[in-house]
UniProtKB/TrEMBL annotation:
Name this polypeptide is given: GNAT family N-acetyltransferase
Keyword Transferase tagged: yes
A molecular function GO annotation: acyltransferase activity, transferring groups other than amino-acyl groups
Species of origin: Salinimonas iocasae
Residue ranges annotated for the N-acetyltransferase domain, each copy included: 15-210
Keyword field: Transferase
Residue ranges annotated for the CN hydrolase domain, each copy included: 231-486
InterPro entries: Acyl_CoA_acyltransferase, C-N_Hydrolase, C-N_Hydrolase_sf, GNAT_dom
Amino acid sequence: MSQDQTSVEDTEHHLELRNLRLDDYNDVKTLMDKVYVNVGGAWPYKNFKAQVNTFPDGQICIEDKGKVVAFAISVIVDYEQFGDKHSYDEITGDAYLSTHDPNGDVLYGVEVIVCPEYRGLRLGRRLYEARKELCRNLNLKSIMAGGRIPNYANYANEMSPYEYIEQVKSKDIYDPILTFQLSNGFEVKQVLTAYLPEDEASKGYATLLQWHNIYFEPDSPSLIEGKKSSARIGCIQWQMRYFNNVEELLQQAEYFVDALSDYGCDVALFPEFFNAPLMGLSPGESSIDAIWHLATYTDEILTAMSHLAVSYNINVIAGSMPVVEDDELYNVAYVCKRDGTIESQYKLHPTPHEKKDWIMKGGDSLKVFDTDFGKIGVLICYDVEFPELGRVLSEQEMQILFVPFWTDTKNGYLRVRRCAQARAIENECYVAIAGSVGNLPKVDNVDIQYGQTAVFSPSDFAFPHDAIVSETTPNTEMTLIVDLDLDKLNRLQNEGSVRNYLDRRRDLYRVDWIGNR
């Protein structure tokens, strides 16, 4: 080493700004126990784990030679759901950050702590600047925070908290927290009472602080691109009948698309394997010959359904159809949008019958579809009986889950129905199921159908008392049209009798998708 070089070990400090990691907990605990010795000390590890896992980008720290010496915890919230009169526990989800909303508009400051031995290095200012940069990068309106006023206890007998704050503003009184926040561009919006009741130094009071992001660019949706607050759903309870050719089947499909379009529906949902009557045209005698023959019609039907979606100005979920790829058979649902684009969702779990008799394979990707009426997911029949799939879609902000199904007996139907209802409640979304009815006497192994189409909602006061928006008469060909209020889902998440999304113990468990998107 030359004389003009100095190693990191030789310098007094080597500071690095970075995001917190789970293995930083011991350093964080040490800091909190030191700073909050009179206010309960450090969070348990489960809180810290939830914070880092829920919003990794919002948890920032400064380390010095490998040791965390300052940190800041943040969360994104939909501020209107809380308003200015909130407590610390309410807006932070008891410090679990269960209130985190990736689509929120405000970055809320949960905590900032600097090691007392480092307070002359302006590390707090660095953390605040990092928060501001994050706020700008995420295009959020502002940073809000509840700030303690720990010197107020010394003046509580002389003045109200309002008077105390004014004196701090005028620099007649020094408060280690409020003075710092004011010097960093924050404004006091109002006084919060019982914000942290255990904070005796502040007498339970806190300041509601705000920093405005002057670079915030509010969305200004046009009439065409605006976010819809409701959606009209059309479901088709499809009668299985013999068709002489694919043209007759498409004529029947167009009848329903036309009818639902006339009623202004945003989407038409067909059942799983709605084209199964064409299996009767197979020259082979076995069921596997019939399903592989059915796959030969898929491209033609898909093209026609996409054309119907465009010409009738309605999104069409074309139930599902068999597809052969690389000599493997799959069951695929197609989302034909009215702008002409087509997306697909493969059935992930073929039933034992489909695997054994048809040698059918499962897909390996799952995704949420962005449509002009909201975010939707599609799970084909048996897939809805696996709750992990609904949870993965819910984490991607799905609002409506569509389930095209095909069941032959009532107990098979009830499995689909009960699981669909559970998905609506646990994921706070709407679920629409559509099935087929009738008989196919000329088609081996699929000669009977049992079905009842329905739309389910979460179970709370804002929704139908039995959480059933509407349902059809069983085993009768008909349509079901319902209007769904999407804004109710947002209110439910924050104001419901129970809050499944917010109350999930993310510090204890989670569902991760490890396959393709």
